[in-house]
Design a protein that fits this description.
Largest sheet: none
Strand content: under 5%
Radius of gyration: 17 Å
Order of helices and strands: HHHHH
Distance between the termini: 18 Å
């Protein structure tokens, strides 16, 4: 299960990072609040890809209605969004000099914005796997309400 999560969330992370690069790299939305906005919108793009791929290929059918999973996934992802955005801004605005020095050592030499975003997405992945496993895609019997929590007939 973990290897599928890493694969499909990796695809979602690539979507996230490419969208971020579009916003803060191409469109120049990198100053002040605009950087946080760029990272947040990029995260939402990746979140949609992550839900579809992980629901279909990573987690076993939960027995819960898809709409309930979507709500839980969205709420868990809001936590991931807050964590990713906070970490990215913290790394970028408080560790910019360190990030630029680190970027200079890498063969591809990413910008400080990109490196901060990559680090934040990587750290948020641990939270995401556990939260989606135990909240978003939890089996119908796992929480109070058991079998009355909804049937999943759409898989």
């Amino acid at each position: 299960m973990l290897h599928r999560f890493v694969l499909f969330s990796g695809i979602a992370a690539v979507v996230n990072l490419l969208a971020g690069q579009l916003f803060y790299g191409v469109l120049g939305l990198s100053g002040g609040w605009r950087y946080g906005f760029s990272v947040a919108v990029a995260f939402l793009c990746g979140m949609g890809v992550s839900f579809v791929l992980n629901r279909r290929f990573t987690y076993p059918p939960s027995g819960r209605a898809a709409r309930r999973e979507i709500v839980d996934f969205f709420l868990v992802s809001l936590g991931g969004l807050a964590l990713t955005t906070t970490l990215a801004q913290l790394f970028y605005f408080r560790g910019g000099a360190v990030l630029r020095a680190l970027a200079a050592l890498l063969p591809v030499s990413p910008t400080a914005e990109t490196l901060a975003h990559v680090l934040a997405v990587g750290l948020t992945a641990v939270y995401s796997f556990l939260a989606h496993k135990y909240i978003s895609f939890r089996p119908v019997w796992a929480w109070p309400g058991g079998a009355t929590a909804g049937k999943r007939g759409d898989r």
